[in-house]
Request: fold
Amino acid sequence: MISVIFAIDRNNLFGNKNSLPWNYKEDLQYFKEKTLNKKVIMGEETFKSIVSRNNKPLPNRTNVIATLTDYTFEGVEVTHDIFKYLDEHKDEDLFIIGGKGIIELTYKIADRLFITMIDADHEGDTYLNIDLSNFKLVNENISGILHFREYRRL
Ligand SMILES: NC(=O)c1ccc[n+]([C@@H]2O[C@H](COP(=O)([O-])OP(=O)(O)OC[C@H]3O[C@@H](n4cnc5c(N)ncnc54)[C@H](OP(=O)(O)O)[C@@H]3O)[C@@H](O)[C@H]2O)c1
Reply:
């Protein structure tokens, strides 16, 4: 099963200076609950952003880096062909967690999307372009300005 998980604001803002434009504890907690003990696949920029913040890869998850460069990180698996990787591991519970490049490339083949839509405006430099017409909203939980939505591919 291939899932994609990310947050956007109501303007489709997604990132700022290779980091998140916001800091919502409840969303970080949701992300942790969904991905704990799973395989999390991310682009090189997102991986570097996580390591610069935490000084280590995401704990208690199998981290996988997608990149076209020769970037490596001790103890972390790297793929140079994300589609091949997803195809070879699709029977596992895979979570694609960012960033813009990797999500825009792969979301159309995902089985599920977990999107936190933040109903507010923020400052940032990176917007996400995705088309949800091939997905159906199957669940939504609203907590203040945070809309936790789950979509399934049609
Ligand atoms: N709001 C959220 O939930 C959220 C979550 C995560 C990240 N973000 C934000 O997203 C932004 C980073 O996104 P980004 O697009 O710059 O970087 P990214 O998606 O983290 O990294 C893209 C990487 O994928 C590589 N790539 C391209 N095609 C590939 C393929 N077929 N197979 C394997 N690897 C491939 C690229 O290589 P090349 O460079 O050589 O093309 C590049 O290294 C940051 O602002 C971050 O904060 C937001």
Summary: The two ends are 14 Å apart (CA to CA). The first strand starts at residue 2 and ends at 9.
